[in-house]
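Much of our argument rests on the idea that a fold can be written as discrete symbols. In the encoding step, the backbone of a single protein was reduced to a row of integers, each denoting a local shape. This step matters because it turns folding into a mapping between discrete strings. For completeness, the protein is quoted in full, as a sequence line and a line of structure tokens:
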Amino acid sequence: MSASHPAVHPVEAPPATDANDVPRVRMKDTQGMPGTVGGLALRLLQFAFAVSALCVMVSTSDFSSVTAFRYLVAATALQGLWSLVLAVMDTYALLVKRCLRNSRVITLFSIGDGVTSTLTFASACASAGITVLIGNDLGLCGQNHCSRFETATALAFISWFTVSPSFLLNFWSLASR
């Protein structure tokens, strides 16, 4: 039997480094994450569409008679407030060149985006169902403000579409730690 014989080669020990001398590696700035220009743009779009949906729905005289429309008003008001606060934080972070990648901050952003996006999506779906009921099934668009209801519902869906990337990027950043 011819087997090879193992050989031992001496290896030098790596140089000892002090824990304070280790250079910190910063994660690549992905546009859309907190503290980036893309993140600020997403927050401003979320705010604009949520407030637009809120204003269009409130401009009708009979929105308060339907629970789904009141839910849409409450959800878009909360979405607009949340997006405005985070847009201010993103603006501050950009101006002072701060990083918003603290795990607690990212956790807060992820939970807030998840809750507000779920509420906005649910309210938009409920309002879309009532709008279809009023317009198609009951045929009462002549007596109601169907076009305004549809516009507010569409704006709420667009607001949800702009919240989704923020939530996904924050959640991805949190999960990749």
Q: What stands out?
A: The chain has one domain: 32-175. The radius of gyration is 25 Å. The chain has a mean pLDDT of 86. DSSP finds four helices and no strands in the chain.
